[in-house]
Amino acid sequence: MEVSASPASASTTTTTVIERSFAGSGDSEFPVWERLGAVVRLSYGIGIYGAMALAGKFICSTAGIDCTGGFHPSLEAVLDGLGYAAPPIMALLFILDDEVVKYSPHARAIRDVEDEELRSFFYGMSPWQFILIVAASSIGEELFYRVAVQGALADMFLRGTELMKDARGIASLTGVLPLFVPFAQAFAAVITAALTGSLYYVATAPKDPTYVVAPVLNSGTGREDLRKLFAAWFERRQMKKIYSPLLEGLLALYLGFEWIQTDNILAPMITHGIYSAVVLGHGLCKIHDHRRKLRQRIQQVRVETKNNNL
């Protein structure tokens, strides 16, 4: 004998299952396991950025350059940091706007990159944890990429013909091509940005799957539709590989030129922190809003189901 559930009971079962997935939230915003995971990710992130700061100090001491990057607390540095933060924030928020994402596959890819980063690392953090990791990333990355890497490269290029006697590789270009010397700071910023994007690509680029499981379709139309779906998926995946390191590289280039103009590493730190806080905070707010609407919808379905059973 075949037994089938009634529509009402099936709806009740589905609603109960969905409710259980949010049962851990209760009155709190996140389940316990999400909060524990956030603490682990926070500790890991602070450790990584702390190691970057120490590595930057080691590079500076080895190269014989100032490890503070001209750090000097001042109102001018704060205002510079705030002013330089506005253009990249406005540009990225425009790209991530829902209306732009609808019509631009490139904006869709950038949005996917940002959402994936939010869900994989930042989601579940409390406000103070979020602020702490943003501050740690701003300080650690600026001390490593800007002060150590860009500063060491600029110092190497600025020595010019003094390095020509014993220089090898790219350092000797300053002697072969004297035009590099006036633009040593800019050239160092470009190389640092390229290095930042390359390292980010190596660290975060998703690996292509060994195989893809798909249903066997006998009809030619079905196979063609499946092929188009797979092609669209693969294209979005490739764009995510490109835009993720590209965004990091462009931001690194922007911050590098800001440091050149301000000559105070505090300004890029502030710009970096505000940019990350606004962009990532905006994305997290949208995720929380979608989650809240889903909970409201679940509650509405539960009420409607109870009313139908009466």
From TrEMBL:
Keywords of the record: Membrane, Transmembrane, Transmembrane helix
One GO-annotated biological process of the protein: CAAX-box protein maturation
Annotated protein name in UniProt: CAAX prenyl protease 2/Lysostaphin resistance protein A-like domain-containing protein
InterPro entries according to UniProt: Rce1/LyrA-like_dom
Record carries keyword Membrane: yes
Domain CAAX prenyl protease 2/Lysostaphin resistance protein A-like: from-to ranges: 126-277
Top-level taxon in the UniProt lineage: Eukaryota
Keyword check for Membrane: yes
GO MF annotations in UniProt: endopeptidase activity
Xref: Pfam families: Rce1-like
Residue spans crossing the bilayer: 183-203, 242-260, 266-285
